[in-house]
Amino acid sequence: MADEPVDAKGPEKDSDNKEDIKPKSKESTRPESKASSSSKTDEEKKTAPRVKSAKSKKDGKKTGGKGNTKSKPAEPKEESTEKDGGGQDSMIPLFISSKSQEIFQCVADEHVTEDNPHKLIPKDAIIQDMRERAAVSDFHPVKQLILDYPGDEILLIYDADFKYGQNFVLVSSDEEKQRILNPVVEQAEDGSPTGEEGEAVEEIDPVVYQYVPPEPKEWVSLGSEKEIEEASWKETEQKIRITIRRARREFGGALSFSDRNADDAKDGYIECVPFEDKSFSLKIMELDKDVQAVSTYTDQGSQTVWKHPCNKYTQYAPRELTEAEQKNLLSSETLYNFLDRVTPRFELALQQNDIMDVFRDDWKELGNEDDTFGSKSDNHLKEYQSFTDLQFSRDKVLTCIAWHPSIKGIIAVSCAEKMTYDERVDNSSRIIMTQSLILIWSFSDPIHPQILLEAPEDIVCFKFNPTDPNIIAGGCINGQIVLWDISKYVDRLKNTQRGKQSKKNAMLNVPGFEDDSSDKTPVVRYCASAAIESGHRNAVADIQWLPDHMEVNRFGLMVENRNLQSCQLLTASVDGTIGIWDTRPSKSQSQTADDGKEDNPLGVATTFKHLDLTWKPIIKIHMSRLEGSGDYGPVRVSFQERQGDRHLLEKMQKEGSAGKSSIDRKDSNMGGGFGIRSGSAKEKRQLEGATTKFFVGTEDGELIYADLKLEKDPDSGKLVPPRADFVKSFHDRAINTLQRSPFFKDIVLVVGGWNFSIWKEGRESNPLLISAAASKQFTCGFWSPTRPAVFYLGTAEGNIEVWDLLDRTHEASLSQNISASEITNVYPWHLSHKQQLLAVSDNVGTLHILEVPWTLRNLTHGELTSVTSYFDREDKRLEYQEQRESVHQENKRRLDAEEAAKKIAQPPEPSTEEVDNKMRTLWLEYLEDEKKFLLDLGLVEEKEEPLPDV
Amino acid sequence: MSSEVEDALKRIQHMKDVHGTIIINAEGTPVKTTLDDSTTLQYAALIHQLTATAKGTIREMDPQNDLTFLRIRSKKHEIMVSPEKGFMLIVVQNITEEK
């Protein structure tokens, strides 16, 4: 065994090992063996050759077995396919010359053919032949093999195709011969050989198998590469390539499309019948399945039983002492002693706290040192942008400015002709021909205004509606009140916010899509104006939207406004009247408001159609003079209620029954349906806590405090506006600013003429502060929106003055020249906590936008409390002053009375005797005193009187 | 005697920014108060506990020492407590932020 190569599968001891006669021949035939060989030959291949001794024994057995094969005559007719597969160790290719063929009667294509290739030749004949022809014999190379051949006949197979390399194949094993000749019968034979083999196995048994590690062998193809090749995918079909062409002239030809009936034309209708797609009806022929053994596992859980749950808690009542006990304790000595010991500690601690706040952070305050005025840090107003329109605003007076309440970087400004009344009259024809406009500017385009609002006459004042910024109300120089609705154009304002330039350019570059109108500034015509007969008769000097949480009814009372939409206007005109206007339609009008579509050539918004030319104020108050006849000319009005201040409304909500409807906050972008939903004023509750009193500034510089609430005239029984509470004249020219501090409801800044004053509502005698007359006129003023102590003033010289009440009150903290001509308006706007802008307009048509420095917009440490205490201090001073005044008056009255009384009753002249007596007593008193004094000093000794003799 | 107690309390109560004074006994039951009932109970119960802890801390460090006065500074108030035998006086002072 050791000298023979052993296959790894050697241990297989099957009957097949009988064939392994010649290891040599096996070696030679192996490369030629086919992969498609039968299973039996496969096994043979694998079997290891046996030990020589076993082989000889086997051979003996073989000879025994030979009888079997012999007994069955070989059938020459065999399946060629079977034979083809028979290439084996025992198959030896052999060249047989034509002479030999003749001798053995196996001439190719004569005795043997491709279909019948078998030829049995007797062994003896071959041996005979070999003897006769010796080395010439064709069987000479296999002489030994033939000699060893156990059977009598040797099978020759004609190999017409030279599969084995020669024209014939010699089958050297008897077993193989049998298999080739009668394969079917062979299977039936299986029984008998196995029996014999069983014996053979028994004999082989004693051989001890020894494991020899397998040696690496050359790779032999068994056909796996073919399988891989078959399994791999290859592109077999050639790709289709299609080119479609169309004549160039057919492109871009004139086409005309029209509708037509599909039935009219022959090819107008192509039906797509539903059909079954065969690619979706394939049957599954093959199924991939796999099975994996997984160790068994179980899911289990355990839970404690949830027993009867119930919400319960236990709490003891706090221990309290009974009254008797309390009394007892309170009067006990121990408690008294305790307090006696303890109180000094508390007094000490409380005093400490009073004297000094140990927890004060001094570092925090240090930081602000640098921010006050006068330091080197940047504290000047910086020019941010300026707007002037060559066509519309140049050399005109900018009468009013307003920031857009919601869109950042949008500011509107109204222009008017720079003329006095007389000039206006002279040039009236020219004025009529020129447009009166409000320009709406965007920061993104400093050259062209975004929207132009057209007015019937020059606008003196205008305001954006705080709840719907698309609505703008304006007052004209001729007394008209007009309204605009810019909701159609609001996109234009929004678009300009960012990246407008690029967008516009991109749009314009597309050929065929140039839009000339996109570049043109739209002119918006006013959509309503007040009825001429019921409007003001002189310039409307001030216009304001009432805050959205309140409205004023016909009786001058303030009632709540649950819609939270500003819909009432307050106007003040130089004709001596103050009007309150409601933009909502009255009941009778609301039905007819929407009748019919009239032609609207100017594209006027119909928002306020119901008001146009019929609009009347709901209240009109004549500011009649307290003394003498005539009216005051109100130019500024100021109410206490302020936009966005909801605390009164909320208080009412709380107090009011919970069932009442809550505030339904309407979308502020209501556009067309403006205010129509608001109900009548009847059910509305009065706004408690809101005062109907208001300040009025007049043309002549008077400050009036009046009440809106109408009173019954005792004579006529009619409702008439009450007379003003007081009128003060501290200003020498028309009041141009009357504004409440954004931090204090009751503090009012009044600017007019050459000075300004600060008033506190309720302190009517004097202003808290009045400035000395300045060298130039103040033309406008405005509180800083973020600093309670700061306000801005504009002067006739073109300066902006910044006053900081905490810095100094006798002069401006900062004065800066902005324009060469008069400043007409100043309007700071808090854009973000990083930026605050100050809009300043002048009377030559330029709108300056200045950036407010950090120091002017940031609240300094403790500013609010300081300002509050400053105002309180001033208030107390005034109160004291008033008291003193009244005391003085009282005193004066009394002194006057006394004097008068004295004059009436002069006392009589005393006689000389009485005078002498008086003098004498005085002299004696003096002497007495002198004596006493000298005695006390010890300068004079009292004469001791000697004791009287006994 | 009762009026003298009242007087002593009144004196403290009228000092600047004093929000309220409470006297509680050793069990933490309020004896006399100038605050409303619920606030008093809350102060009494909580401050009593806190003071007991503070007292324990002091005693732990030095058995011969004792807590005499406790000041608690908060954002809104300063609470001052002084325990003595049998009673405890609590004074709550508002803090005035100087701005």
TrEMBL record, chain A:
Gene Ontology annotations for the cellular component aspect, listed alphabetically: inner dynein arm
Location of region: Disordered: 1-92, 582-601, 653-683, 883-916
Main location: cytoplasm
Basic residues bias (residue ranges): 48-64
InterPro entries named in the record: Dynein_IC, WD40/YVTN_repeat-like_dom_sf, WD40_repeat_dom_sf, WD40_rpt
Basic and acidic residues composition-biased segments: 1-33, 72-86, 883-902
Top-level taxon of the source organism: Eukaryota
Positions of WD repeats: 569-591
Gene3D superfamilies: YVTN repeat-like/Quinoprotein amine dehydrogenase
PROSITE patterns noted in UniProt: WD_REPEATS_2 (PS50082)
Keywords linked to the UniProt accession: Cytoplasm, Repeat, WD repeat
Keyword Cytoplasm (UniProt): yes
GO biological process, one term: inner dynein arm assembly
Subcellular location: Cytoplasm
Record has Transmembrane helix as a keyword: no
Single GO MF annotation: dynein heavy chain binding
Protein name, as recorded: WD repeat-containing protein 63
